[in-house]
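Two entries, shown back to back:
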Amino acid sequence: MKTYLIYLGLLIVSFWSCKESKKTMDVTQYQCVPCDLSCDKEVFDHEGKCPHCNMALVPIADEDFSIDKLTLHQGSGSFPMQVKTESCPKDIYVFYHMPKNFDPESKVLIVIPGSGRNGDDYRDTWIRASEKHNILVLAPIYPEPTFGFDQYHLGGVLTDLNIMEIATPVKGTNQVRLDESLLQYKTVPNSEFWIFDDMDHIFNAAVKATGSHAKTYDVFGHSAGGQILHRFAIFHPESKANRILTGNSGFYTLPDLEHPLFFGLGESPINTKSLRKSFKNKLVVFLGEKDNASETGGTLLLSPTANLQGHHRLERGHYFYNFSKKLADSLQADFQWKLHVVPGVGHEYKKMSAAAAEYLYSLGD
């Protein structure tokens, strides 16, 4: 009898050990968004920020993860996604918030972060609006080690850009001076390798994962995100985007077919026909009233061509809009672009996000 009880006890211990072991195996593990530091290899058992580099922690995907298997849950989360680039497929990470009252008729918004690539912070900034207006919010992160200035800010239209070698910070300011005479790059003519089509892919994946009936999405970007989105409207005019809010860009690619990239469209596949389509988009040049000469936040590029657009972001936004409108008028094109200045706000993504939520979902078109 004693032997039997000992054997039974061992079975029970073994059972619970296996159960606890399985539970441990089932716990989601996290890693930081790649930052090219040693912490890329560390594994965490919780969400949040990496204690070493402050990048967002994302779930480690199963080796057989496929976007077709994606499911989104109520509340906040994230998922990996592979996108095309000129060299090879690369991973991005999409942070999302699904409101508690989400249903198939809910709106969808994509939010593009600035140069900090902090899609988690931008997502968090939109949670209140997500719940109030019943919006599914999607905010991608393009890790900086694998998506440099040319692949992120410029959307991958250029590659091998030497901007880091010819840009010099102006001491004591937020300005960076660019020596345009030394500028070098290669164009990427194949649009499959630009990031602009990623927006539709992110939207399509979320629609499939949630059973959404949405056919279009709104998109908002601030600073570097604003740079991406005005180029998105020009280089990818037939996207599924509805309203495109390009906020507080540092400088612009003008719809100028004579001037070369990256301040114009020369050497690119864009032509008058595609510009006519671009002008039909509901693009809003979304500017902070105080993002002017007194603003010290963000980074402002200085160069002879950039300075022709103005000496600060507010001036440059007005210049871009007015240049585009004049060109559209000369082409007798249907010009749907708008300009909106947010009073009392500078280069502040949280306040610009709040203003964008008000503009999109309280004021209407």
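entry 2 starts here
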Amino acid sequence: MQPAISNGQQIRYSKTKKRFSLGTAFMYIVLTAWSLTTIYPLFWIFNNSFKESRDVMNKSFSLAWDPVLTNYTTAFDRINIGKSYLNSIIMSGSTVIFVLLFGGLAAYVLSRFNFRGKRVIYSILYATLLVPAFATVVPVYELLIKTSLVNTYWGLILPQTAGNLTFAILVIAGYMSTIAKELEEAAFIDGCNRWQMFMKIFMPVSRPVFASVTIFVFLWSYNDLFSALIFVSKESVRPIVALLSEISSQYGTDFGLMATAVTLTVLPILLIYLFISKFIEQGLTEGAVKG
């Protein structure tokens, strides 16, 4: 037999339900409007990549009912966009690997050890976030010239690794500081040294934050047009963002080709995000909560 519900309880329940429904409806309206302003431009670029240049100009907002692949074949044959793809993957992927390795080790030391000067190191790391990247271009470029690294893969990998290390260290250290000390003590009892503990305990447990750092570092490295134009301007090592800038200047009237180049540039970022998206929200929130 179910308990009776009074009139006052029914009124409060109906008000709560009504308030919840209005709030949910408003939330969906806002999210729908946001998705239209974000997703539709991507669809517009993708749709126009299957049109000829004159159709992009005359029928920009119509669907490509008769898609043509000429723009894609031109992008790979005449512009050699595949080589630029490979360059971007090599340089951005290497940057992510080095940032995760060195940043993870530094974060492990800062989050799990107490030593003199720890607060000073944290202060220096936070202070470096205030230094704009443009202020370091001249000394970095001179250093690369002296070491003969200009127009090489290392000429972009090393500066981008150094530029992203601070962010990675602070974010990963914030997450690792929340890992229970009992887990570390149990690993010591089982005979793990510091390196084994980092590789077998802290890295697997910290997968969410490593995934978050991966997507951000890869995104910043992949889209770093300013550094690419200065440090690796040679065609053989030119990343895809630099190629996209060149297409805009040389093939400015071929709007179908430009739409294709933009589509091919954005595609890797979307694929990587889809693979690790489930870790991103968890990695961004858990590192800021103690316990």
